[in-house]
Amino acid sequence: MSIVSIQNLTKAYGSRPPALRDVSLEIEPGVTGLLGPNGAGKSTLLQCVLGLLPDFDGEVRVLGLDARRQRREVRRRVGFMPETDTYLYEMTGIRAVRLLGQLTGMPRNEALRRAHELLHHVGLGEAVYRDVKEYSTGMRQRFKLAQAMVHDPELVFLDEPLAGLDPKARDELLKLIKDLAVEHGKHVIWSSHILPDVQKVADSVVVLHHGRFRGRFHLEDLAPRVGRFHIEAEGDLEHFESALEAGGVTVIGADEGEGPETGGGTLVEARRGWTVDVAGDDAARKLFAIARESGVRVRSLGQVAEDLEDIFLRILRDPESD
Amino acid sequence: MAVYARGYRTYDGDFRGPPVAWTIFREGVAQALRRKGFRWILNITAFILLATAGMIYIQVIVEKQAQRLTGGMVRAQLMELDQIIHGFHATTMFLVSLGAVLVGSGLVADDLRTRALSLFLVRPIRPVDYMLGKALVLPALLIPLALLPGLVLWLLVGLWQPPGETWTFLQEHSDIAWNVTRFYLVGAAQLTGLLLLLSSRTPRRGLVIGLSAAILFGGPVLRAIGRLVLGPIGTLLKSLDLPNNMLWSFTRDRREWQFEGQGGGGRWGGTTGEERWLQWQPDPTVIYIVCFVLLAAGLYFTWRRARSVEVDA
Question: Do B15 and A117 touch (CB under 8 A)?
Fold first, then answer.
């Protein structure tokens, strides 16, 4: 069963070209990364799902509820950490989180208790009575996470939660989010364009580009894809590249390369590196064989682990996914 | 166990808190009362009220002494109570306007500037809840500035009557209580409408303060122009002096003392004076229309803001 189901979602701002075009996708339970370059439509998608932008075409269901008609019930069961720098004017952290808890329907005292718990949990225990306006960027990100979780939602939307944080703060917040997902079973939809962070937590990713749904990928599928190598060779490189493709090797990318050139009366042959995918257990042997047959010398050969960035770029490049 | 050592805990309480509009309203009032400027305005108004009450009390004592000396009935004849209250309101009108601008300017603009709407609107809030919560803040804060003082003076004078005559006095002067209430209602509707309208249109609080101050304190100029312009435009211009609308709502039923002073001459001098006076005043019906239009516009734009976070620039 999907936690978010989107059918033919189109959203345009005024007379401008649509920010989302006919997006249809299903998001499964767990942690899902919503990926895309800047301007891909990620934040617009989240805002439509949350009913913050009610004027859209298409159908959106969240936790089995119609996001347009049952907006209030949806909002009671979800939390949202916005990307923008947002706070409540002239309010301390504790007061702001308590108020936002009350606005979800929690009684005042319960909301106050939860606000204390959450602010301590996210590491703002020493700053609960400080005005949110005085918080640093990292503290504000933590504050935004606390307010998103104050009513203990089943599903939490995080819009660029680690933006603007230093590495230490990123790690800490990442740990908190991972803890919520793994230890407390919260479903997380994480919108980001910082792929390594998402890779650390997400179960699957959904890719948006130019307002369109471009593909989906389960991160567990990264593990078996170990047949990626970086091979550097010198000699007749053009022949070698075509031999690679003829030999069933997928060329993922090529370095710029250097040569051929003469220097000090010596001919320096052309040298270049490729990132390739090779199927099978004897991949290295196969690459050496192709090199030998092509008459090039292998200068280096190493295994490359595939990461989310490769998947992301491949999905974006793939014309089929348009 | 200390709260910080508990880690994340699930919430198993209920979601049957008070209505959301009430929470927004309550927070708005609390936030206004935390502002030093507004607290000063409350204190100054309270001081003027005490001073006015003190003067009335002295008048009561003096009149009682005079009547005792002359052997007359011991009874405070405060026929000018409405004039005293009018004087109080005219004195504190600047404070009422200033307080309204100070508090009302940020009602929605602060949420727009700090992007707090995206935090509010992901809660189970209807646009009408947000609108109502915001719209009730200013009327509540105007109660101690524009409603209670007049009613307190009316009650005090009633209490200072001879034993057994308090109720009679209050009944005889019940129109004062109604006029004070009308003064407050017109003020609350106008000021709430104006400030919600401006505050929901821009995130810049300074701009809202500037515009609303210009409208409130530039009203007499509009009224002066309106006096010279014939027809509906003149009537409309005269009704755009919002503070005067409030005062006129208080005095219009008892305007005889505006121009019938001692000996019938008065401040404006007889019938001609009355005509001149009335030329300066707007039609009461137009005042109500202005109140309605301002309030409706303010409520509509606030409601619209709470519908979506989409910038409708």
Answer: no
Measure the CA angle with vertex A118, ends A145 and A158; round to 5°: 15
State residue A61 phi and psi, 5-degree precision: -120, 135
Confidence of residue B258 (pLDDT cuts 50, 70, 90): low
Distance from C-alpha of A232 to C-alpha of B8, rounded to nearest angstrom? 50
Interface of B with A (CB under 8 A): 3-4, 6-11, 13-18, 20, 23-24, 27, 31, 34, 106, 110-111, 113-116, 118-126, 307-310
Chain A CB contacts of B304 under 8 Å are none
**Can you state the angle between helices B148-159 and B81-104, rounded to 10 degrees?**
150
Given CB atoms, is A154 within the 8 Å cutoff of chain B? no
CB B147 within 8 A of CB B180: yes
The per-residue pLDDT for range B31-90, each reduced to its tens digit, is: 999 999 999 999 999 999 999 999 988 888 887 787 777 755 544 455 578 888 989 999
Q: pTM here?
A: 0.81
Question: Given 3.30.700.30, 3.30.70.260, 2.40.33.20, 3.40.50.720, which CATH number is that of A228-305?
Answer: 3.30.70.260
